[in-house]
Amino acid sequence: MPHHTPPSLSAATPRRAFDSVARAATTTVRNMAFQDWLATAFHLLMWARVAMAPDSFEASMARRASFSLFLVTASVLGMTRGEVLRPGFARSIVYRLGIFVPVFLSYFELRYLLPALRPQLLDLQLHALDNAIFGISPSVWLDQFVTPGSTEWFAFFYYSYFYILAAYLTFSMFIDKDMRRLGEIIVGGAVVVCVAHLVYTIVPGMGPHATLAFEHPLVGGFWWHTVASTVAASGAQLDIFPSLHTAVPTFFLLHAIRHRAATAFAIAWPVTAFFVANIIVATLFLRWHWGIDIVAGLTLAFVAQRIGIAVTAREVDRARDGRQPVWEPFKA
């Protein structure tokens, strides 16, 4: 005789599955921290921004990239904040990488997303602001100091941005055991990146190198060719306001100064300060940025630090009400 599943049992299976998904979703939302909401909203906004762009190859690539980054973020949050993964090393590492890497990778989608928006470039307006604020655009004033040696000097510091980024994030995410410091740097860093990337879609430009004529050409050696080839191959091209090359290292410097009582940051902050000063000048000297881009980058760094401090102070003790800690230390 054929076997028939009792109706009550067949109906219970999908109901149990629905209840399980609902509980996981509720747990995820309850455990989500500030940076989780920020990253989720950011990826959705970037996807919505390019979803409204005219159809093109660039728009298609950007839509895929932005939605993929959102799906990765949502999946990671489901596994970690939804407590599918048990507390321990795996959950800690999956969360750290899963919340940070998609935000970092969003820079590369800008190479397609920004052109897909078919933007009206605002370089002339930014140049006018430079002249109004500084009397002369800093890049134009710095042209008198251009030599092969000075170009190579500032190209080295411009490229050192990537080493500073890697050093601070690696130390904070995987070595530093102070969860409050970790919260401040990740929350503030996420604010810097997310705000900058969104503003790039509103204030597009290519910078002085593509807008103005200069008397002295930039000629250098290894570091200048490395910078020029890196920007040509991987740069978003229209990402100038605000200057991330200013905002990110300045934010790290502010973080190091705030925590200079710790040995690592006591050593790091003077070195970082020297590099940051040269990086900021380099963005102008190498003609990638207008002066107003630097002002915007500095402002963003200061505001982001205050947000990181305030949010972390509010969320650091939330485990007392039964929610998952914002940051869990690595445990075997």
Compressed to H and E, one letter per element, the order equals: HHHHHHHHHHHH
Number of strands: 0
Mean pLDDT: 92
| Tally of structural domains | 2
Q: Compute the number of helices.
A: 12
Low-confidence parts, pLDDT < 50 over ≥5 residues?
none
Q: What value does the Rg take, in angstroms? A: 23 Å
Instruction: Describe the global form.
Output: globular
For the biggest sheet, the summary is: none
Give the structural class: mainly alpha
Provide tags for this entry.
single chain; mainly alpha; 2 domains; 12 helices
Can you walk through the features of this model?
- The protein is mainly alpha-helical.
- It folds into two domains: 29-118; 120-324, no CATH class.
- It has helices spanning 7-31, 34-51, 57-80, 89-116, 123-134, 138-142, 148-175, 179-200, 222-234, 244-258, 263-285, 291-315.
- Helix 3 packs antiparallel against helix 4, helix 4 packs parallel to helix 8 (179-200) and helix 7 (148-175) packs across helix 10.
- The termini are far apart.
Helix/strand layout:
Layout: H1 7-31, H2 34-51, H3 57-80, H4 89-116, H5 123-134, H6 138-142, H7 148-175, H8 179-200, H9 222-234, H10 244-258, H11 263-285, H12 291-315
Helix pairs in contact: 2-3, 2-4, 2-8, 3-4, 4-8, 7-9, 7-10, 7-11, 8-10, 8-12, 10-11, 10-12
